[in-house]
Amino acid sequence: MWLSTLLGIVIVDEPGEKTLAPFNVRGKVQNVSVSSNVSDIPPVLISGAGPVGSVCALYLAQQGIPVVLFEKEPDLTMDLRASTFHPPTLDQLDELGVTERIVPKGLIVREFQYRERHTGTRALFDLGRLGEETQHPYRLQCEQYKLTKTIVEMLEDYPHASVQFGTSVIGYQETDGGVAALVFDGVNETRVKGSFLIAADGANSRIRQASGTLFEGLTYPERFLVVSTRFPFEKHMEELSWVNYVSDPEEWCVMLKTVDLWRVQFPVSGEQDADDLLEEEFLQNRLQRLQPKEGRYDIEHRTLYKVHQRVAEKYRVGSRVLLAGDAAHVNNPLGGMGMNGGVHDAINLSERLVAIIKQDADLDEQLDLYDVQRREICVDFIQKKTKENKVMMETEDADLQEKRRRRFLELASDPVLQKAYLMESSMIDCLRDSYEIAA
Q1: Rounded to an integer, what distance in angstroms lies between the CA atom of residue 385 and that of residue 403?
Q2: Model's pTM, two decimal places?
Q3: Whole-angstrom Cα distance, residue 71 to residue 50?
C-alpha cells in the first residue's frame, strides 16, 4: 500500500515579505547519478535539503553510503529563521569538515546576556568557561542557508551522492528489505527504491502526515515578528553583546547579530492582521520603541510566523522510515535549540544507519535506539527548556520579574553556577545525556 494521504496537523506560517533567494547551484548537482560500485545496497533516500537532511546526506556520503537527497524547491533558499550554532553542534559538524568552512561566514559570539530594559540590569555569560568541555567554546551566528549551501557544494565530491532539486517525496511504500519513495518533479511521478527513507522535510512533513503519525502539542496564540536591519545598535545601547535576551514589563525581545545584520524578534498578537503587522509604519514604531533614533530604520527583511511546540508520537514509523528535525519536533526559537536539536538528530540517526549498513548491527535495535534517545531528550529537555525560556521572557508579574533578575545575577556572578547553566543552555548536557538513554 502506498502511503501518500495527507493526514495530521498542517503547520502554516503567516504570509509576509519574501526572505527567500535562490542560489545558482542547481546545475552542479542536478541529476547526479549514484555510483553503483560504492555499495550494492539501494541508496538512503532523504527528503528535504535543509540543515538536517543535508547533514545526514554528507555524513552518509563520507562513509561511502549512497544517498539521494530530494529538495522540493528548485534551488537552495535563503532562510533567515535559524542562525545560532551551539558549541556541541559545531563539534559534531567539525567531524564532517563543515565547521571550518562556515566559521568564516558567521560571527563568533563568546558572550551573551540577559538585559532588563526598564532597570538596566545586565547578566553576562561567558562561553569561554566551556573550554574544557568543547572544541568550540562559543556560539556561531551564521544563517542556516550558509550551512546548506556549504554542504551541497561538499557533496559534489562524492559520486555516490545525488541531490535532486525541484523534486518532492509525496508518498512511500515499505518493501521487502527496503522502501520505495514516490517522488514528483512537477511533471512526472516516479518510484525510487532505497534502503531507508529519512523525513527531514519540515514541520509540514508529507512523510509524517502520510504515515498517520500524530504531531502532538500546541500552537501559541501569539506570533513572532523578526525584523532585520543594518542599524548599529551596539553603538547606541550600552555594553550590548552580539546575543541579547531583553526583558521588559511591556514588551520583551531578542536581539541577535549576524555578520551583516541585527535581527530583532518581537512577540505580536495572534489576532492582528498579518499585513498590518508587516506594514512599514508598524515596524518602524517597534524599532523606535526599542531604540529611538533620528530618521527611519533601514529594514532589510521582515518575517512573521506562528510558534509551535509539537513532538511526533514516534520518530520511527514502520520499519525503515525515520523522522528527523522539524518533521519530528518543533519548538519556539528562544534559546536557539530547534535547528541544533535537528542536527543532533541527523548525527545520531546517521551513526545508526552506518552501524546497520557497514557493521551489520541489528536494525531494530539501532533504529529503536535512535527513536528513544532523540525523542526522549526532545520531550524532557528541549521542549521543556524552550517553554521555560518563553515564560521567563514574557512574564509581567512584578514578583516573578524580580525573581528572574536575582536568578540571572546569581548565575552570572558565580563561576560554578554559570558553567552549570552554560552546560545546559548550550545543549552540551542534553546531547551527552541523550547517548546515555537505553532502548
Answers
A1: 18
A2: 0.89
A3: 8
Q: What is the mean pLDDT of each successive set of 10 residues along the chain, which is 439 residues long?
A: 49 40 30 46 96 98 98 86 92 98 97 87 95 97 95 97 97 93 95 97 95 89 91 94 87 91 90 91 94 96 88 95 96 82 97 97 97 90 65 66 82 95 94 90
Q: What contacts 181, CB < 8 A, 6 or more positions away?
A: 45, 47, 70, 169, 171, 172, 191, 192, 194, 197
Say how many Å lie between the first and final Cα of the chain, rounded: 29
Helices in 114-250 by DSSP H: which ranges?
144-155, 206-211
Cβ pair 370, 355 in contact under 8 A: no
CB of 128 within 8 A of CB of 33? no
C-alpha cell at 357: 549498513
- Residues near 57 by beta carbon (within 8 Å), at least 6 away in sequence: 46, 49, 67, 69, 151, 155, 161, 163
Which residues, other chains included, contact 410 with Cβ-Cβ below 8 Å and sequence gap of 6+? Answer: 417
Rounded CA-CA distance 222/306 in Å is: 7
Residue with cell 524552550: 386
| Residue 172 bridge partners (DSSP) | 3, 181
